[in-house]
């Protein structure tokens, strides 16, 4: 068990973040409803970047969570790395071991499109590794939490349920969950070659990882193209924390753990998440062989 910064009790911290998260859910659901009106949509969108849109919901949740943490936990030796703050000031530097890694709205495109597959990610990293984590999925009334040792899901009324990870050992028997808005031709070829039992299309990495933890899918593969945009620390930190504490694994294709705090916070290459840490390495090796044998991606 890692000791939290002086003056922070883990149970009180989780209680507070639970409250903050449901406050964030109210904001996200409010703007999600407004987006159903085309006139309101123009007012909610804060930029014209189709590849990386920002909405008022992103900004309001960003402001809320940072304000709540800073108000409740004054003078604590940690920093907050937020996607929205990096967009406006790309000079985040810290020497602290403890860093909040925060994405107020993962899956903004899905949020705008009204699919419901969007999430808030909040992780507390210790020495560049996710420790505590929260993945909030408002449209499903789900708040996934890990205290660093176990993972559970809560509804707004406080009811809880445990993870329900699947145990499919063979790659072709697995259900893959993959991106709706970030698919690419190389990943399509890989999926075709593996010939998964089933492929589910879903936005938000948080929603995809939650589907693995909840037993709705087995595996997620992220493949970033060279020279193209790639996911960032805030896309993976909170989802990784809930998956690993539940018994799953997330690594690069060489079965190496993700490293946080790199240049520009990039998480590039091929990343694989599965619901079974015991078979994860063999699954990675199998995928690597398929990629190599078919010349799908430069490894």
Would you give an account of this structure?
It is a single chain. With 299 residues, the chain is an alpha+beta fold. The chain folds into two domains: 10-161, Fructose-1,6-Bisphosphatase, Chain A, domain 1; 171-293, D-Maltodextrin-Binding Protein, domain 2. It has nine helices and twelve strands. It has helices at residues 10-34, 38-44, 56-72, 83-88, 108-113, 185-194, 205-213, 233-246, 280-293, and strands at residues 79-82, 98-106, 119-126, 129-137, 142-146, 151-154, 160-161, 175-178, 198-201, 219-223, 249-252, 270-274. The protein has a seven-stranded mixed sheet, with helices on both faces. A three-stranded antiparallel sheet has the order 10-12-11, with helices on one face. A two-stranded parallel ribbon has the order 8-9. Pfam families: Inositol_P (PF00459). Keywords: Hydrolase, Magnesium, Metal-binding.
In short:
The chain has helices at residues 10-34, 38-44, 56-72, 83-88, 108-113, 185-194, 205-213, 233-246, 280-293; strands at residues 79-82, 98-106, 119-126, 129-137, 142-146, 151-154, 160-161, 175-178, 198-201, 219-223, 249-252, 270-274.
Percent of residues in beta strands: 15-25%
The total beta strand count reads: 12
The succession of helices and strands, N to C, reads HHHEHEHEEEEEEHEHEHEEH
Low-confidence stretches: none
In angstroms, what separates the terminal alpha carbons? 36 Å
CATH superfamily of the largest domain: Fructose-1,6-Bisphosphatase, subunit A, domain 1
Binding site for Mg(2+): 83, 103, 105-106, 235
Cofactor: Mg(2+)
InterPro entries: CysQ/Inositol_MonoPase (IPR050725), Inositol_monophosphatase-like (IPR000760)
Protein name: 3'(2'),5'-bisphosphate nucleotidase
């Amino acid at each position: 068990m890692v000791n939290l910064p002086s003056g922070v009790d883990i149970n009180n911290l989780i209680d507070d973040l639970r409250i903050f998260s449901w406050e964030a859910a109210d904001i996200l659901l409010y703007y999600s409803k407004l987006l159903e009106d085309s006139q309101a949509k123009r007012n909610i969108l804060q930029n014209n970047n189709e590849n990386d849109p920002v909405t008022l919901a992103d900004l309001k949740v960003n402001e809320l969570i940072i304000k709540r943490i800073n108000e409740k936990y004054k003078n604590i030796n940690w920093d907050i790395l937020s996607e929205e703050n990096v967009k406006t000031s790309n000079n985040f530097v810290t020497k602290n071991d403890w860093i909040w890694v925060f994405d107020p709205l993962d899956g903004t495109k899905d949020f705008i499109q009204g699919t419901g597959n969007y999430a808030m990610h909040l992780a507390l990293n210790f020495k560049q590794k996710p420790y505590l984590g929260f993945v909030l999925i408002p449209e499903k009334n789900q708040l996934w939490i890990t205290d660093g040792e176990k993972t559970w899901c809560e509804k707004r009324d406080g009811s809880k349920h445990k993870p329900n990870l699947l145990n499919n050992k063979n790659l072709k028997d697995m259900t893959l969950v993959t991106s709706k808005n970030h698919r690419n031709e190389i990943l399509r070829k890989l999926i075709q070659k593996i010939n998964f039992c089933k492929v589910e299309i879903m936005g938000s990495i948080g929603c995809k990882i939650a589907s693995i933890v909840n037993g709705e899918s087995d595996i997620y593969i992220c493949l970033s193209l060279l020279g193209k945009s790639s996911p960032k620390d805030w896309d993976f930190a909170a989802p990784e924390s809930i998956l690993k504490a539940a018994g799953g694994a997330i690594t690069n294709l060489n079965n190496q753990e993700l490293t946080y705090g790199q240049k520009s916070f990039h998480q590039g290459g091929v990343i694989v998440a599965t619901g079974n840490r015991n078979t994860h390495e063999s699954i990675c090796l199998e995928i690597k062989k398929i990629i190599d044998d078919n010349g799908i991606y430069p490894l």
